[in-house]
TrEMBL record:
The lineage of its organism: Bacteria, Bacillati, Chloroflexota, Chloroflexia, Chloroflexales. Residues 330-432 form the Pyridine nucleotide-disulphide oxidoreductase dimerisation domain. The keyword Oxidoreductase applies. Gene3D superfamilies: FAD/NAD(P)-binding domain (3.50.50.60). This is FAD-dependent pyridine nucleotide-disulphide oxidoreductase.
């Protein structure tokens, strides 16, 4: 019999680890325990399934337990791991359907318990019609509420990227929306002047945007009817909680798996934890940030897939390395695209860099091409070393993929002058002769 691998959590990281381990060593016994009813789903697509752009939430499932079984991976849904015993190398598991508990042995353990959506202890938080969005069941429940209750008003609490994506999704159902954010801007990781373009887009699309406001509670009868913020009553027949996520570390912490300074599981570049034969990956773990050269917690699907793959290869005897992230994200907010990579100006200054920013607005295509749109590019660099530290962009087209140029430059450790000399493509339908990135970079010279 081969060595036994237990994976806790069947999300992006867990199933990537399982699949890579299987490919690397066909003799391994691999079992995945997943608390929810689904494994291997693309959570990033939920807002588009809720909007209706993707017909069914189930279309986001990449592979079913039956498909994994054909690969020799046992993926058990509705199985919750209650405890890890690192000395005996066991986990205690509850089958949530039968309520039966049992103990399973592992030679290698992969912890991919993911993130947990924040749930502030507000009065009325448990009313029907109040949803967080993390798992397939959440997305299905929101769709069902939309179809059966036909809410006409809604409140989104939180202006991070999930709150913004959900604004577009709910607006598509004709819901009159209020978005409440306790900070002075949406998308707090972005510098305020660029985020203001997103705020303008929300208002243009009819969203009642309330910045600097704190929610005091939710009110209703058998279901939610309103949200109270700053003493005002805002009608809400549906409420989306999008107040951020935390790493789901309780199980790991109880077993003595070490956490890093961010509160997520500390891992090395092979996804090893502090305990032998125990690996961690995805939203539950930290990632090395290449620009600031320290671990960060940035829960993203792209990192979860890569870290899971590295863990899976290494536990199967490989020598794979996860080189870290530069922090690249993109978000669509109605007709606007916003994206960033590396550090914002505020973050770069907080990290102690002699940081400054240059900002330019230039066209997405040649000015004579129909449909060209302005793109605002902000580039952050260190005035002493000239090193590029980050980039942010907002515009109506050509933003989300242009940011990848910045990601590549950051990973390569370029200066802003290297970026200014970059031989970017030019043809009128795709870009102007001076791409917006080059226009901004040249302002720093
Ligand atoms: P998770 O997906 O959280 O999976 C962890 C799994 O572990 C869960 O299924 C959970 O049920 C299970 N689990 C937890 N505890 C136990 C236990 N004790 N026993 C058994 N099972 C357990 N990222 C991007 O890069 N781009 C995007 O555009 C993007 N959009 C997103 C939009 C939304 C609405 C959401 C919710 C997320 C989005 N993300 C995006 C983030 C991305 O989905 C996550 O980073 C990714 O899913 C993390 O994968 P994971 O496997 O680490 O964690």
């Amino acid at each position: 019999m081969g060595r036994r691998v237990v994976v806790i959590g069947g999300g992006a990281a867990g199933m990537s680890a399982a699949a890579k381990a299987r490919r690397t060593d066909p003799t391994l016994e691999i079992v995945v325990y997943e608390r929810s009813g689904f494994v291997s789903y693309g959570a990033c697509g939920f807002p588009y399934a809720i909007k209706g752009e993707i017909a069914r939430v189930e279309d986001l499932i990449v592979r079913t337990p039956e498909q994994f079984a054909r690969q020799g991976i046992q993926a058990l849904v509705r199985h919750e791991v209650l405890e890890i015993d690192p000395d005996r190398q066991t986990v205690r598991v509850r089958d949530l359907r039968s309520e039966r508990e049992f103990v399973d042995h592992w030679d290698d353990l992969v912890v991919t318990t993911g993130g947990q959506p924040g749930r502030p202890p507000l009065p009325g938080i448990d009313l029907a019609g109040v949803f967080a969005l993390r798992q397939v069941e959440d997305a299905l429940a929101i769709k069902e509420w939309l179809n059966e209750q036909r809410p006409r008003s809604g409140v989104i609490i939180g202006g991070g990227y999930i709150g913004l994506e959900m604004a577009e999704a709910l607006a598509a159902h004709g819901i009159s929306l209020t978005l409440i954010e306790r900070l002075p801007q949406v998308l707090p990781a972005m510098d305020a002047d660029l985020a203001s373009q997103i705020e303008a887009e929300l208002i243009r699309q009819g969203v009642d945007l309330r910045l600097n406001q704190t929610v005091q509670g939710l009110v209703g009868d058998e279901r939610v009817r309103a949200v109270i913020a700053e003493g005002q009553t805002i009608p809400a027949e549906i409420v989306i909680l999008a107040v951020g996520v935390k790493p789901g570390v309780a199980l790991a912490q109880a077993a003595g798996i070490g956490l890093g300074p961010t509160g997520a599981i500390a891992v090395d570049d092979h996804q090893r934890t502090n305990l032998p034969q125990v690996w961690a990956a995805g939203d539950v773990a930290e990632a090395w940030h290449r620009v600031i050269q320290k671990p960060v917690w940035m829960p993203l699907g792209t990192t979860a897939n890569k870290q899971g793959r590295v863990a899976g290869e290494n536990l199967a005897g490989g020598d794979a390395r996860f080189g870290g992230i530069v922090g690249t994200v993109a978000v669509k907010v109605f007709a606007l695209e916003a994206a960033m990579s590396g550090l914002s100006l505020a973050r770069a200054q907080a990290e102690g860099f002699a940081a400054e920013a240059v900002q330019a607005t230039a066209g997405s295509r040649a000015h004579y091409m129909p449909g060209h749109q302005p793109i605002t590019v902000s580039l952050v660099f260190d005035r002493n070393t000239r090193r590029l530290l980050g980039g942010q962009m907002v515009g109506r087209e050509g933003v989300a993929k242009r940011i990848d140029t910045i990601a590549a430059a950051l990973q390569a450790g370029w200066t802003i002058d290297d970026l200014a000399e970059l031989d970017l493509s030019y043809a009128p339908p795709f870009a102007p002769v001076w791409d917006p990135i080059l226009v901004a970079a040249n302002l720093a010279r």
